[in-house]
Amino acid sequence: VLGWAAVVLAAFGFIGCGLWIWGPWRVEPVLRFRISAGKPGSARVQLVSKLADHLRKHRIELELVPTAGSEESLDWLNEEKIDLALVQGGLDLGSRSRVRQLAALQMEPLHVLVKEEVEGALRDQDLEFLRGKRIFIDTPSSGTHVLAVNLLDFIGLGTDPADAPNSVIVAGDFASYEELLRASQDKLPDAIVLVSTIPSPLVAIRVGQYGDRLGDIPYARAFTGSGAIDVAASGSAPAKDPEKYQLIRLLGAECTIPAYTYGVAPRVPDHDLRTVGSRMLLVTHQKQSSHTVQRLMQAIFDSDAVRHTGLDLDAKTLELLAEYEPHPGVDQYRNRNKALIASDIIDYMEKLLAFAATVAGAPMMTRKRNWPICSRRTIRSLPHNHD
């Protein structure tokens, strides 16, 4: 009886140790990240604000650090000035070798926003209508700028004022979305180009208060299938770092801005608009620990995250081909359940059974019994039956 009691106690102790190791009641230390999502007022910044509220219950704190756009965010991440960034996909990393991808999130369509009085010309001529027009394509440190310059180049429009017959006029006097919203109607450019999740705060305000309209990009599929192009020669990219202005078009995709997204009466747009887009990426730097990444990923892909953040979060997107080198913690997060069932639990049960068998056998070996003790001489003296 005492022997079996020892077995039961030992088993419970062993199971208790395992539960303590794996137990959900262990309090994890608070994680703090400096994260960038581009310019203040952008859709990404609003997403980070919602994400921060959600992550707080997982003991993860986010400190928002504004940057001029995705290109600058990638620079700062590579230099470890920040810990995380939400950036536009499709951008070439160039020499920023320390950047690592965590997840590809939802699509971000390119919006082409024009004043109401020129909507008809845009419908008739597509983006060729922008030749000689003054347009806002964000600052050179933004992913929007890189995508817009590539798209203009694809249709034969440059951004160099010296090439006047085949060029647009870049409205470089605006540095932020707030400046666009504060500007009077007569000071605004003829078109505003920006990459944003739906709905874009800037587009919603311009449509609702000023009557602006959205344009269609009919050659979106042809553009995204046209490979990569270096637009440094266009004059928009600094000569000292031309590789940053490369766009990997094959990583983009044709997508749509659904009808009624920005208004019902009047309908804005009045039909599904074809456009180009790329996936918003969550990235970090290579020195981030795998354990930290696993905690972050588990919190982000929590079942309540979609409801709290509005992000289209699905762990299946982790199976997509990564644009940048994935952080090792991502694979560990993806394989966490598989590894637990296939390895840890089996190994744990084997050790538990071996331990229980050892403890159970000990009383049997020590209990006094009347076992006959046979020496070699006794065995030799026993009669042998050779039949």
Tags for this entry?
alpha/beta, 10-stranded mixed β-sheet, two-stranded antiparallel sheet, 387 residues, elongated, 14 strands, 37% helix
Please give a quick description of this structure.
This protein is an alpha/beta fold and 387 residues long. Helices cover 37% and strands 19% of the residues. The chain is built from 13 helices and 14 strands.
Question: How would you portray this structure in words?
Answer:
It contains 13 helices and 14 strands. It is an alpha/beta fold. The strands form three sheets. Strands 1, 2, 3, 4, 5, 6, 7, 8, 11 and 14 form a ten-stranded mixed sheet that branches. It has a two-stranded antiparallel sheet with strand order 9-10. The chain has a two-stranded antiparallel sheet with strand order 12-13. Helix 1 (about 1-20) packs antiparallel against helix 12 (about 335-365) and helix 9 crosses helix 11. The relative contact order is 0.16.
What separation lies between the terminal Cα atoms? Answer: 45 Å
Can you tell me the residue ranges where pLDDT is under 50 for at least 5 consecutive residues? 228-245
Largest sheet: 10 strands, mixed
Multimeric status of the protein: single chain
Q: Number of helical runs?
A: 13
Tell me, what's the shape? elongated
* Average residue pLDDT: 79
Helices and strands, with pairings:
Blueprint: H1 2-22, E1 31-36, H2 43-56, E2 60-64, H3 70-78, E3 84-88, E4 99-114, H4 119-125, E5 134-136, H5 143-154, E6 169-170, H6 177-182, E7 191-195, H7 201-210, E8 213-214, H8 220-224, E9 228-230, E10 246-248, E11 253-257, E12 263-264, E13 267-268, E14 273-285, H9 290-300, H10 305-309, H11 328-334, H12 336-366, H13 376-381
Parallel strand pairs: 1-2, 1-3, 5-6, 5-7
Antiparallel strand pairs: 3-14, 4-7, 4-8, 4-14, 9-10, 11-14, 12-13
Helix pairs in contact: 1-12, 9-11
